[in-house]
Amino acid sequence: MSVLVVSGTSTDVGKTVVTAALAAALSAAGRSVAVCKPAQTGVGPDEPGDMAEVTRLSGVSTTVELARFPEPLAPDTAARRSGIPLVTRAEVLSAVRELDARHDVTLVEGAGGLLVRLGAGGFTVRDLAVDLDAPVVVVAAPGLGTLNHCALTAEALASARVKCSGFVVGSWPRHPDLAARCNLDDLPVVTGSSLVGRVPEGVAGPDASGFAAAAAGWFDPDWLETLAS
């Protein structure tokens, strides 16, 4: 199984852009890529969601969104408030395994942080990783406070015996402050996992072809090669 779960230390840390960058980089390496979003929140029925953004930026067209809820809340809360049925763990696993059977790499983008409840029964991104025996790459913010968030996420993964594939800074500032610069050295120390990428802030603009062409350069080449092998 070639599944990689993309989670985050919290919301708004750049998971979708990192997912798009990984999809673009793996595609450029000649791999067929699919992307699954179990639950999309904060988007209306006819509005483009995260999977549309992944396709726009990466060119990867095989994407699956299993549930959508209009309010920008945790998926299980948004589902209850909207009256729309919650997505089930079995539905997500079936969709991911079907994609995995037909593609070299399947990326699964979570919602919010690792332990956000995605659907029926309160299952989480971590639960999916356990079921799929898949590693998790964690997207983090660059600045002050991120070391604690990253360490907590690393502990949550280790407690469930889920492999942490590494950490990626989801939006690396053009002018990083002292905390951001120090975090590059400190993050691997406090988490026990490597920093495997930095996606520059502001890259998800209208120049999608430029994004796709540059994406591989935002990740550690040896790490990226292991995903593509």
TrEMBL record:
Mg(2+) binds at T16, D50, E109. The lineage of its organism: Bacteria, Bacillati, Actinomycetota, Actinomycetes, Mycobacteriales. Pfam families: AAA_26 (PF13500). Its EC number is 6.3.3.3. The keyword Nucleotide-binding applies. ATP binds at D12, V13, G14, K15, T16, V17, D50, E109, G110, A111, G112, G170, S171, E201. Pathway: Cofactor biosynthesis; biotin biosynthesis; biotin from 7,8-diaminononanoate: step 1/2. Belongs to the dethiobiotin synthetase family. It is found in: Cytoplasm. Homodimer. The keyword Cytoplasm applies. One of its GO terms (molecular function) is dethiobiotin synthase activity. One of its GO terms (cellular component) is cytosol. Its cofactor is Mg(2+). This is ATP-dependent dethiobiotin synthetase BioD.
